[in-house]
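Following up on my earlier thread - several people asked me to post the actual chain instead of describing it. Fair enough. Here it is, all 84 residues.
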Amino acid sequence: MNAAAPRPRPFPWEDVMGFAFGVLRLSPGAFWSMTPRELNCALAALGSRSGAPARNDLKALMERFPDRDNADTQRRQDLGRCNI
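Reply from S.P.:
Thanks for posting it. Predicted structure:
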């Protein structure tokens, strides 16, 4: 019994172009003149920034920007309501 080889997925041009133009803010000329290696490096550089912050970084942010107290939160919610 011969199993058919899986068909390769087509290259995701729409996703790549959307990322290149929208996130990287490349012009069409710059995008189309890039080599695959250059594009891969650009994608990898942005990918290394993602992920959760380290515990110490999160703690520092929480200390610098504490949550508001309940009275302030309630006041903001009350101001946001419309009585139509």
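The CA atoms of residues 57 and 63 lie 10 Å apart. That should answer part of your original question.
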